[in-house]
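subagent[fold] <- orchestrator: predict structure for attached chain, return tokens only, no commentary.
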Amino acid sequence: MSRTLDQIKAPIEQELAVFETKFRQSMKSSVSLLDTIMTYIVKRKGKQMRPMFVLFTAKMAGGITESTHRGAALVELLHTATLVHDDVVDDSYQRRGFFSINALWKNKIAVLVGDYLLSRGLLLAVNNKDFRLLEIVSDSVRKMSEGELLQIEKSRKLNLDEAVYFDIITKKTASLIASCCAIGMASVNTDEDKIERMRLFGEKIGIAFQIKDDLFDYGADDIGKPTGIDIKEKKLTLPLIYALNHAPGNVKRDMIYIIKNQNTNTRKVKEVVDFVYKSGGIEYARDAMNRYKKEALEILSEFEDNTARTSLQQLVEYVIERRK
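subagent[fold] -> orchestrator:
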């Protein structure tokens, strides 16, 4: 039976509370406007999956240390910075059901807040000489930026290459979870092979996580109706790429025309959704997701069997089986 996220995080509830405190402290500012915004950011915290990956990995490999907590805060600071900047780039006024920073305080302040969070992360690592951790997270932020830009470039041309899709999601989504697992290991172990194995474990989970998101857009593995948001935004998801690449030429042309020119027409978007279902795109994506999950669990099985490893396994199951 799959467990809820609250049940999975129960063994590290105290450590997560310590992380929250350290995260809040690392964001503090003497500028009252900044402090107000930082308080607002902390209140909107999500499911805490990133710190959970960091803490469970460290616990599995020997035990959570001060370095682990700093590593978790570092990931969260740099990731939050990228989210604040993303909302500006996307003209997005909501995040997780709350108003975004740019919606409340406008773009100029949002960009500066993102810069501030980035600098706090860098200082947290440098002041504590956590250079290996900083290297891991900086590499992840570089990949995320490249992934976003690659997606913008390819969605303009509607490039239907599956290899390009995997390149985008590996950089854009998977690199962050990969860095969480690598940081968790690097905070308690200097063995580069083990750090790389956990990075790869996180990368595979991140890819599976993104494919799951793709499936949600078609109402698959979910209780909701298809939203077609990805189609409206001309995002190339795995079910769609598979369906288009296995369609007769005339059907493929018609579908691409809808995505390019009629993506705001709800009836036309439903046509694309139905086409993806009939073409076997959903089953293909689900199989790929389960393959990456299996490969990730095989890497995890190389490590010592303990309660933290079991918790990581449960976290993987949650990522794949979640309903939203």
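orchestrator: received. Logging for downstream: Strands lie at 94-95, 98-99. The mean pLDDT is 87.
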